[in-house]
User: Fold these one by one.
Assistant:
Number 1:
Amino acid sequence: MSAPGLFSYRPYWAKRFGVSPFLPRTREEMDALGWEACDIVLVTGDAYVDHPSFGMAIIGRLLEAHGFRVGILDQPNHRSAEDFMRLGEPVLFFGVTGGNMDSLVNHYTSDKKPRSDDAYTPGGVAGARPDRASIVYTQRCREAYPHVPVILGGIEASLRRLAHYDYWSGKVRRSILVDSGADLLVYGNAERAIVEIAHRVARGVKVRDILDVRGTAVRRPVGATGPIDAEPGEFRVIRSDTVDAPGAVDPLPNPYATEEERLAMAAPPAEADVPLVQLGRGREKHPRDKTILRLPSWEEVRRDKVLYAHTSRVFHLESNPHNGRCLVQRNGDVDVFVNPPPFPLTTKEMDRVYELPYQRVPHPAYQGQKIPAYEMIRFSVTILRGCFGGCSFCSITEHEGRIIQSRSEDSILRELEAMKHVPGFTGFVSDLGGPTANMYRLACKSREIEAACRKPSCVYPGICSNLNTDHSALVQLYRKARAVPGIKKIVIASGLRYDLAVESPEYVKELVTHHVGGYLKIAPEHISEGPLSKMMKPGIGTYDRFKAMFDKYSKQAGKEQYLIPYFIAAHPGTTDEDMLELALWLKKNGYRADQVQAFLPSPMSYATAMYFTGKNPLRPVKRDSEEVETPKSAEQRRLHKAFLRYHDPKNWPILREALRRMGRSDLIGAGPGRLVPVESAPKMAFSGGKRFATQHTGLPRFPKQPRGGKRRGAAR
């Protein structure tokens, strides 16, 4: 199976208008371009920055390259429909996104406290977008022009394409396609889907009749036998519990098994335990691209946590675009069909997408106001997409996929050349990366195995023997990038996957010698096997191996450099004892965290399913299977964060109380083997240690990082 070339379509007639300096955001800008109307109006919760790290800039410039007249409504006033009429009625459709970040993650901390800033707004001011922005914007578009189709996309929609647990309301909500009333949902990075849809609509096809595009979710009447009307028997709809049955004892699935072998291993579902809506149950061979898995309905998963965990597991197992099947789930009075994931972009397609005519600066209307997310990534270059790490708490794989998509070396070097003309450039490049720093051109050794694989991670519990871990292409890229005239320093800021890096000592030496700006952030996340097994992260021994290499090559380079380890508090599978073990490890190694993060259950991740259900969907879900202990109460979450900041006097009372309760009063007192001082100890008696290896070295403290920018994290 393959996809049409992203740039193989005949351009739309409006291509004659040429390239816009900036995509217009006002009627006056449209008039200056000679446009009487926009073909497509994109609505976004972010400020308009014409830079390829901002999703709406990529989609807008891509549609422009196909000849469409594209306008931008950036952070429109959502309190009425008036601002949604600013550019007039679009000829084809509205495209709506909440922005580069989920609006609720943007607005609230992991403890549900309102944030005071917004990194994607001029001046960093909070409040420029509403909660659940995708839903609100869709409703305002409907009020403005009721008959104009609305297509929903972006990370907020992508991670809510099925019924999902919503941490902020504490409820299981329906698919956002149903709650918003949009005509169609595109998920993932969505270039292939949105280009195909735009050309079909331009040919006169109604949006609601576009039902078969990969990377989309569509609504259909209950009882429809497929995402499209088809001949009887063309689609086979089978229950998801026939391939992963709650209640049965299944062996771990073999990702390379044939379809017949998998079906033969599947145990029959227990009708009393699994009251799924049934459209068909059969085990005879049927083409995968014509097979549909019916998931438990929204009503069932909100009522039965085992079915929710089962649904999460099946959803992730069907995420490979080469073997993933169409999913269907009843949401209220409609069926939501989620078509298989889109095929990854080729290197040539990635190059063209990232070399579209971006201005690489915010729209002039902001009159020089700083946009924090832009300031962080303005002099960075995206070299790859996707992540095969499969960390259970991360949503990158659910959004961008597990197959790495890499740009060519020449394209990256051309962007570095062009960067020299961006206002404010001094020769310092803040990053060459993506979701991770070091998965550039890494892939399965066999296309056949990759096409059949259904494993959630290529690196857990160990690195797959079929994975190519050769970093030589990345080493070569670093060397050529440093040689570009005018480039003085390149720092790697994307999170490093250190379990891969240790497989390539040459890469670690290159990185440490030339591309570390005093400190390097990595994310062990924890040291205890319990939480690490639920996170799908390597053991602390791998961190120790990497640290030894890091220290060795830093010393050889004659540089004083430090690792900045990140950890998560209150992750599913974490006990108080696990956090105590971590606190003692931090103290022993002299680390004192300035900032700590508590687990935030983002929609549709594996870890969120654990948090909500108490079950582990990384393994076949059974009614009597492993229970996952999860810190949920405010008190326990506060305690787990306090363990990470054991050195803060404000946390000593809660830690003393916990240590006594845990029978570890021996850790209260003075001395290197104790965690916190006794109550009567002077405030200054507790000292020593490094503030993440920077506080007492003369180096600057690790700066607070604004949320957002490229969807990157410390090896998440």
Number 2:
Amino acid sequence: MKPQKIREIVLGKDLDPLKGETRHSLALVAFLAWVGLGADGLSSSAYGPEETFRALGQHTHLGLYMALATAVTVFIIAIAYNQVIELFPTGGGGYRVATKLVGPYMGLIAGCALVLDYVLTIAISVAAGVEALASLLPLGFQDYKLGAEVFFIGILIVLNLRGMKEAIKILLPIFLGFVVTHFVLIVYGIFAHASNLPALLPNTLAETSELAGHIGWIGVSGMLLLAYSQGGGTYTGLEAVSNNVNILAEPRVHTGKMTMFYMALSLAFTASGIILLYLLWDAVPVQGETLNATTFRAIVESIGFGSELANQVVLSIVLAFEAGLLFVAANTGFLGGPSVLSNMASDSWVPHKFRYLSTRLVTQNGILVLGIAALAILFWTRGSVTLLVVLYSVSVFLTFAISLFGLCLYWWQHRKELDYWKSRFALSLTGFVICAGILCVLLVEKFTEGGWAAAVIIAAIAALCIYIRNHYRDTKTAIATVDQVFANQPFGAHVGTVDPSPDDQTAIFIVGTSRGGGLHALLWVQRMFPGHFKNFIFVNARTVDTHAYGGEGAVEQMRAEANATLKYFVDFCHSHNMASAAYIGFGTDVVKEVTRLCSVINQDYPNGIFFTSKLIFEHDHWFSRLLHNQAALAIQRRLHLDGLQMVILPMKV
């Protein structure tokens, strides 16, 4: 079987990005967006409430504050992030907010934190999912957890390479199964022990007063903040919606707000409800089991399904859905992470290839990098959920704090123009104070337990991004200098078009966005082969990347720019009485599209030789080759295999 056929079976058939129905078929309605993006937050109920509850130690009655704080904070952050959706309807989330409203370097920090956040979304969701499954198996299975985590990440990578909507539809039954089973258990668990509810509040207040007498109110506040921050991963899904508005169905802003409402409501109910169950059912940790498993076991046995075996089957189904939802949540990392990388690539913080789409119109480079990074994190932490939660919470609240600070600045700067600025400012400020406070507590209290690692990783990614951007800036400056040199090339006096003859010797130039590069190649050929070529054909294949495909009218703008560039070259040749024509193409793979166009041109002009320019750096190394598209060499190889001649002209920068 040919490799292309195998690839089609595994990943699916190629999609045409220029067809209007393609974009419509891939866009997510609010319900599917809730499944694909909201699963992250909802699934954190499998580990977030437990980490919060464990952090309280012996003072478990304080968990009532945690349940209330979780529900309130979820809605505060969700409503605040609705502002992000309104202000940035093309997506970008925390990175775009920080970049536009605070500054590019704060945007960089937010972007780096988000990248780490989404890597950890994958790692922690898969690790917690395997933990949930391990709760159903003998203790001997613990040694095989890491291998199982690698297997599940591999499956998710393949699913996402097929397409985000396909992946969501496959995982949809798991999501619905989780929602139904956990809704039933939470409602039954609360009503079954409803008689304990009246005593819960006075007991909590009494324990709070007693604890304050020993460690003071500041100590109590610090303990509550630390415990609350341990469940920080609960809120990541809220950011994911604002980050991926561009993939939502029209009208995007309304769809985004509806998705955010579904997420906030389901998340507040589930996370707060589970903490309340811990309190009402006196949950106690059991070796080899999650706290959810222990609590749900007690509830299932209380319901009674006829026999011990039936109870175990029901519990197994509940935990299997919980584990399954965690794998669905890991999918959020594969949706949000590549989106952040593509936005950062647009600003040249990371290699531009992270903007490229595959034939299935997914950012496959980002998906692969996120998957590999998640595997690396899992191997480093050995799948420790406790350590992963600390790393996760630091990156989550750092992003939230920067984004909400940006919103505060925006509303303050526009206070004279907008009548409703006070309420928006107050909401953003409240969210900022909460998130910044939790971040500070995390860094101080958990610095030696993983907080330092989060800070070091984010700083290292940021330093690498600055180096990459400086390289792209220097290269862009050098290319602009070349363009300026050739911009002074005078047009000739000839008026009118000169049509090329198919039988004449033809020079075919593969050009890009740089007019200087195209003229450099044209003049070089004329100088080296004076009078030999009679026809001069220009070829331009534009890459439909995330920037072009996600933005409103971006494809049309790209088409207009490409046509303008080709017209410039053709008009230049005609003005010098040189026969000239142009060919244009669009696709996700520039090498494939150029090769196709060259095959068509060869049929029209069989006596042709292909030319293109390639950037040559004075200090060339593997990293500079990684940052720049090696399309010229790939095209040359394809054309040589097809029996066509191609010459690469060096352009030193």
Number 3:
Amino acid sequence: MTWRKRFAIWRNRLYLYPAPDDMPHTRIFWLAMGLVTLAAALFSAYFISLHIGRQDAYLTPAEDLGTYNQAIWSILRGPFMRQTICNIISDTNCYSLNGISRFAIHFEPILFPISLVYLALPDPKTLLVLQTLVVATGAFPAFWLARLRLRNEFVAVGIAILYLLYPALQQAEVFDFHGVTLTAAFLMFTLYFMYTRRTLWLFVFAILSMACKEEIPLVIAFFGLWSMLFQQRWRSGLALVGLSVVWLGVVFLVYRVASPTGHPLLGSRYAYLGNGPLQILRNVVTHPVSLFYQHVLERSHRQYLIVLLAPAAFLPLLAPWVLVLAVPSLAVNLFSSDPNQYLGIFQYSAEIVPVLIFSTIESMVFIVWLVKWYIRQIRDARAAAAPKAEQISKDSQGEDERVGAARAAKPPLSRWAQPVGLSLLLALVLFAVVRQDFTYGAMPFSRGFSWPRVTAHNQLAGRIEARIPASSSVSAQSNLVPHISQRARIYLFPYGDTVADYIFLDVTGYTYPLTSPQYIVEVKKVLLSGNYGVFIAQDGYLLLRRGLAPPGISPSSTSQTGDGVIPNLPDAFCSFARVSPNEVQHALQVDFNPPQAKASNSAISLVGYNVAPPQSFGVATRFMQVTAYWKVNAVNTPPLKILTLLTGQNGKEEFSSVDFPTISWCPTSSWQPGTIVRTVSSTLYLGNVPIGLAHVGLALLPFNVPPGTILTVTNRVPLHIVSAPAGVSLISGTNALQVDSFTIVP
């Protein structure tokens, strides 16, 4: 056999995807389309409401909603595509207080058409709504593609629902706005039009996809190669590859012009692999085994792959010829030095979801074909044995004919294989995706989910924002930045906290990029530097203006320097800590009587508590936040620290922390008798705590006792339980109170 004949044979074997046969638009089709539309509408309504609630509740961060809002606003107002927001602790883009081009970080020309919407609706909520609507439309090509491949409208509706429920998609959607999140829908359309051979629309959505992020041209190049190999569409496939190569050339040219280093600033995440794309490629080719072990088989990387595949019940693994389309995106995430890219959360996996949906469809096609093939083998074997049986039973030929006629009247088993098999497979993947949504999704039943609640504290922030002139530069806390980022110079505190016209902070909010102790030190340094004075100080908010007189040191301060120093802020500033009795959770009464207290009765009582999350939780949400409610019983309460601790099932203390920021601003010595004070710990990471049952405890310490020493145990304030619910008890011999228990799971 000549090589030409061999090549022709293998080419025909690889020709798996000819032009699809059309299906008529029957009533069943329109009913199914109505169900998909309903599912997309419910998805949109839910996530738009969630986004707006999060924005109004000040739960959206500077990175990246604030950065996108400023960059898109600057396209219309100038300076063009300029971004001044950066994380001074770990970002690579803090080159100048005047900012840098957004194109030095990501190449996202999709922002240009999006900016036109800002002509009518210049608000970060616009981005969130627009993203949700675009992502929801991806359900339609998922349905159309599944319908053509599976030849069943209602199973195709299930595939569209699988797309909408996919945890990786929901994580990308809920994590505010990102250009790459739009690729979930755009690439889904691209796959559909590639399969149906609609070249014009294929290129339209390929271009839209590539406009969303710089690595998507690699994905489109793989699409082109796949089309050439499996569809034998040489011209359109080669054109896709060529377009991708040209686009990548433009990307590197833009980076060279826009970046202060001449290279993509996020390229440092891959610097360990080599200097530049060619050196990286050479190192990957020359060291494939070691890199595979380090970045694929390593535990956290392997867990990432499980997170991606488990929602589809691992069915995509049965269609490796389709799953290969995700290789560029998987490589970008798995080989990054930034662990956020392979946690399975955030926006990084949005572009992989369409390939997972397509490979799930193809796996179902393959399994049903395999079942039909097996049934045919059984039927052919029975047919071959029939002549022998006929010779043996000639005398009963009439009876055989009647039985054969009865059997022929029944529909063959193979006719039921496809609908039954598809129904079972669909039930499997929908069960799997809902199960995974509990851990990694963003649904109301997902672990750790809570609906955002707009409080009077949030509403006060809006009134304070109105006091900041639009032309002024501001250094603000992460959750405040998105609300004031439509200005030429907005910085993520502590960046710019020596030059900004205003500094806007919320001591009750998320302190990113600083840890809580670092944040407290930095804010106090700014307050006592002499460069800024207090313009507004209310309910935990600080609006500082450059040039005003500094506040000085409070009379309640335990020291004049160091961590114990307390700035002299008005009483209204600490109103965030004072609550009414009906706000207390898990009421109880435990009296504490410090040796320094002058009163004969208890100086202070624990009257409530809360531990979140209060149930089992795993690695993805291994965090804890403790709230304690205190009632002051006497004047001149001595300065105290609050200690929270975690003991294992063997009674050993595995973790302890005195990180209750309220004490750093409103010390116990300033609390007034009769008031109830709420103290909330920082978010405490429990990654090093052993798996199993854990007990949460609370204790009080004199302020001058250093944490992490034996004095932390021996100097705890004596306590006495007056009344408490079941489960609350003294921890024997420790002067600590056990308030809650939960299980840490893998």
